[in-house]
Every structure is written in structure tokens, then in C-alpha cells.
Amino acid sequence: MQKWIMSGILAVACIFAVVLMFTLPGREQVAQEEKPQMPEVTLNAEQAEATVKANCIACHGDQLQGGAGPNLQKIGSELSSDQLYSIITKGKGGVMPSFKDKLKEDEIANVALYLSEKK
């Protein structure tokens, strides 16, 4: 009886291992998720300003002077548009929330381009 139980547990563990092998993300997928690719967009400053006012001023201030979040008035001299896109998309630690579920990719890219111009 004990052999049957042990055999059953071993079989379930093997099936579970096979299922995990086929469902867990691969290295390439994890790397792509870690560094999102910014889509090609043309800067629309008006639209970017509206997006920033609707989503960013609570933490970064109405003039991007900082507050709960850092000052963004000259962020373009520190970070590239790709780096900004990654931060806005994924968030940064527990301080900056992710906006990938709140904004479309092209909206995030437009804001990243807009902020990269702030030097």
C-alpha cells in the first residue's frame, strides 16, 4: 500500500515538473519583459502634456518641480527616452507605479519623448 502511495506522489511530481517546463517563461521572454521596447512615435507635445497633467502631477508637481516624486524639469539631461519609457512602463521599486495597464504604449512613448526633451 505504501509503495502505491509513493508511486502516486512521484507520478504527480513528474507531471507537475513537465507542466512547469512548458508553462514558465523562457529567458528571452523574461529579458523582453525586463526591458520593454519603446514603439516608434512622433512627439505630440500637447498630447504628452495632457497625459502628464492627468497622470503625473499628483507626485511630480504641476510644473514637474517634484513633490512625492522627483523633479522632472531637467530629466532629459539624465535619462534617455528609452530609459524613461522603461521606468514609466514598469515602474521603479515601490516609489514609481507602473503605467503599463493605465496608458497605451504609444501614450507612454509620447510622454517619454516629451520628458527626454526637458534639459
UniProtKB/TrEMBL annotation:
Coiled coil: none
Domain Cytochrome c: 43-119
Keywords, sorted A to Z: Electron transport, Heme, Iron, Metal-binding, Transport
Top-rank taxon, per record: Bacteria
Matches recorded under Pfam families: Cytochrome_CBB3
Protein name: Cytochrome c
Organism the protein comes from: Paenibacillus haidiansis
Organism placement in taxonomy: Bacteria, Bacillati, Bacillota, Bacilli, Bacillales
